[in-house]
Amino acid sequence: MVDIRHGTGEQIGPAEVEDVELYHPHSWWTRYVFSQDAKIIAVQYASTAIAIGMVALVLSWLMRLQLGFPGAFAFIDAERYYQFITMHGMIMVIYLLTALFLGGFGNYLIPLMLGARDMVFPYANMLSYWLYLLAVLVLVASFFAPGGPTGAGWTLYPPQAVLSGTPGGKDWGIILMLSSLILFVIGFTMGGLNYVVTVLQGRTRGMTLMRMPLTVWGIFTATVMALLAFPALFVACVMMLFDRVLGTSFFMPAIVEMGEQLQHGGGSPILFQHLFWFFGHPEVYIVALPAFGIVSDLISTHARKNIFGYRMMVWAIVIIGALSFIVWAHHMYVSGMNPYFGFFFATTTLIIAVPTAIKVYNWVLTLWRGDIHLTLPMLFALAFIVTFVNGGLTGLFLGNVVVDVPLSDTMFVVAHFHMVMGVAPILVIFGAIYHWYPKITGRMLNEAMGQLHFWVTFVGAYLIFFPMHYLGLIGMPRRYYEMGETAFVPASAHTLNEFITIMALIVGAAQIVFLFNLIWSIRHGREAGGNPWRATTLEWQTPETPPRHGNWGKELPIVYRWPYDYSVPGAAEDFIPQTQPGTTSHAPEGAS
Amino acid sequence: MNVTLAFLAVILAIAGWWLSRQRLFSKPWLEVGHAHDQRPLDRPTIPPAKIGLGVFLAVVAALFSLFISAYFMRMASTDWWSTPMPRILWLNTAILGLGSLLLHTARVTAEHHRDEASRTALIAALATGLAFLVGQVLAWRELTDAGFLLADNPANSFFYMISGMHGLHILGGLFALARVILKTRAGPMDEKAVLSITLCATYWHFMLAVWLVLFALFSGWANDFVELCRQLLT
User: Does the structure's ipTM exceed the value 0.90?
Assistant: First the structure.
């Protein structure tokens, strides 16, 4: 325990990087619009993602209005309802969560946290954003196309996705959806190459892998997974596009539609499900791992305590990443698979709970006897832990084949994945924005508006999704446009649905407060200074706030220690930045 | 999905090997100072572009292994009959191999500062790439003339789709190659030029390997090979 191995190389000079490698913008356009600076690209990614996310939020309002008050709004017919569901799901999972975590936080934090001047391939990074924007525009275009957007459900299962009974199936909707996804994957690959190679090659002197903040570990592992998983989505989309446009039969079995035999035949819808979920399950962790990483850093910083079990946290991230590739078929228990396969996938699914539980224990143990500051980022981080545990526990229910089969088509599943994959990561996104906004803009977000936003969002989300578990258990089916007269659904369930809808409207409205806060605080927020949270990691040690192009001054920072030196006994302050050399501030026993 | 899982196992092995060298068992909270950063002090030994290409090729490999997985899974249905392979594909394969060889030559000559030879080899490689694409289109024409249309049979659909996807990757490679040719047109070949040529050559070797696998797949040999493996296992 007492064995502190001091480096002998304290005299090593800083890495001076010749300026020629850095790209220099010459005009307003190349500085702020077609920028190759990762920080600008990050803000572009985040703004686009939040904008399209607001569209998805409104769609969820419309859906809830139909569920809570069936028939009260004439313009929400069955077709529109399915279009709202589909677009809400697709936007939230891919265009908001994936893009915001990897494109937004990845771009902003990786170079800054690792002490690099920029991403290694800035030009590809810029292309990545513009392809993403194009993908979003194609997606939005489908709202205005003849027949409207696709209503196939966010999983786009064939054959129904390309048949005339599904909204957009024989119109432009599904074509635009698939094209948009293909563009997204191409754009993401360009960005993803940047994130991975920057972590591998762009770290500053002294920044070993085991000194990287967990945020970077989470984003790095998630990016590697995404690079391997997104091709499956790409393949599935290309093949479905062939089926729809060119009349092939990859996924399309022989079908009689309206008394007419279609020209398709012999295709396998299950093949699509395999491809889709081979992407779809890793996708859950592509969203979750960056959230895990960010939350670890938020908790450590705001509890003024080193993260408990750093090594274990790193291993858990890597193990979760690897395991998540062999669980995909647990989304297909009801597709008629061989029971032995079901057994295998149920086992792997439940094994993932082990590293995940380790992470939860470590977060809780980090909090234990910490100097907890209930700042806004900390509130969101705590809310995340609670929500993630809730959603994770119902995941254990659904991971078992026998429990999943009766629950699979009920609101229970909706409640489960909204808790674990909707609310939980979004709470982290909010926490992260409150945490890093001072670095991005130089000003703090308004505290009062933030408190209002937090409490309404947190309590409201529980009031929305907790009752939904109950609705699922009494058998209320998901995906239904309206229930009609159904004997097994009691009248009280309808009242509950109205309540959920009203809560959804309120929680949605709270997000408008948040958006207003984001814009208002750019000018009117309190001056933050360079390191308002007194944090150790490199992004808080930049010479200027907000950091300029190139991030660091003339010399790159040198890293001397790991990122969690909080409340070190004997140290002058309760944090020691990663750039601080020497051991003078360490107590002799160094019991960190 | 067996092909994809086998591919993932390879990737996992590489990642595991790399991680095992990153001191994952160290205790960073006890270490202060520099002694533990084992990277060389001067510039990184491997240029980022090389690593970037390596990662990109892994993504491309994932893409094609997924296509191949889908091919095998779809093959199991009863409406499948194989597409005959036009003779010209043999010629195309030879042309692609020649392009690979030319890029290798371009790299070696550039390393030995025989700039003119290198430039000639680069342009010749570009020509072989274009010839390969023309050859592929001719092969498609031959098939459609013989009545093997895209939507008639899943084997046809896969052939057109996957060979088209491979062709798109070659086309992208040709753009990169043309850019390298333009950039190295004047002046002596420096270290940067050699790096660019090396990257092009690596990409070309890789796409040649992918094509050989695909060709084996379409011709049915891969099927025999899989069958052999299955018999060996049982």
Answer: yes
